[in-house]
Amino acid sequence: MKKNVTRREFVLKSSQICSALSLSPFIHISAISAGLNSSLKNKRNIKKSLKFGMVEEGTSILEKFKLLKELGYDGVELDSPSDLDQDEVLAAKKETGLEIPGIIDSVHWKFHLTDPDPAVRAKGIEGLKTALNDCKRFGGTTVLLVPGVVNKDVSYESAYKTSQEEIRKVLPLAEELDIKIAIENVWNNFLLSPLEAARYVDELDSPMIGWYMDVGNVVRYGWPEHWIRTLGKRILKMDIKEYSREKQEKEGIWKGFDVNLLEGDCNWPAVMAAVDEIGYTGWGSAEVPGGKRDRLKDISDRMDKIFNS
After folding, report:
1. Strand ranges (DSSP E) for the chain?
2. What is the separation, in whole angstroms, between the first and last Cα of the chain?
3. Structure confidence by residue, pLDDT tens digits, 169-188
């Protein structure tokens, strides 16, 4: 049987409907606002990482991984060869969900691939192979490599030829493991222009070779946005670092790094515009002085601002 609606019930229901309708524009605006905020927060699909050695809080690997996850980092890069307990690393990764996107060759400065002594170069190759295997085990995709140095004992021409010869020895293993070698621009007096860097990678003629773009390292003698556009799809990963030309001039070249992210001479909007142009959507890894919770949180926040600039 159909119930008759009283006048009082009709008025009450009507007022409830009107109230809901009157609020709907605000609800709609709030939803749009939330969507915009979400869009701003995720303006670029670049994941945040940093170097494990920057983490100065926590007594175990798990504690350090938990802290990084809590602070908004997506991953952390490790050195290899190293004395870290790999089972402990894998357990911490599994428990926290923190990724290990890449490995840094820890011996490439000591046993560099352009050393005149073949025995030294052989040690460098073994270190690189260890890093590749460790990267595979940790679920990463790249090993950062400094390909060599030019100095009074190593000519530029020799460094170019020898480093390529040595890297080619490792390419079969890189292909087998499906781990790429990412060559970094550093202050090694070698590969000093983006055109030469691109040529160097292309001449190795392998899909397992690319570039690890260090933004801050370029600022002393160039503009990172130029390098990014020239290297393009060769860029596999990026280091997020700052540099001050003013500090360089007043206090010395190494003092240029003694500045917080966003407070130096990296033109981050220009850098990010170049990143967008080449379609880069990988990792950005902080490589700056680390510290404890507050310092690491500050770095994370500044990286967010950089990626949204």
Report:
1. 47-50, 78-80, 102-105, 142-145, 180-184, 209-214, 235-240, 283-286
2. 65
3. 999 999 999 999 999 999 99
Mean pLDDT over 277-304 rounds to: 97
Q: Collapsing DSSP states into helix, strand and coil, what is residue 235?
A: strand
Chain CA centroid to CA 120, Å: 29
Contacts of 91 (CB under 8 A, 6+ apart): 62
Smallest CA-to-CA distance from 285 within 36, 102, 80, 62 is with 102
Judge whether residue 7 has pLDDT over 60. Answer: no
User: Does pLDDT of 198 surpass 60?
Assistant: yes
* Cα–Cα nearest to 109, from 220, 187, 214: 187
Give every CB contact of residue 105 below 8 A, 6+ residues apart in sequence: 80, 127, 128, 131, 143, 144, 145, 146
Question: Which pLDDT tens digit goes with each residue over 99-113?
Answer: 999 999 999 999 999
Residue 18, CB-side half-sphere exposure with 13 Å CA sphere: 6
Instruction: Look at residue 60 and give its three-state secondary structure.
Output: coil
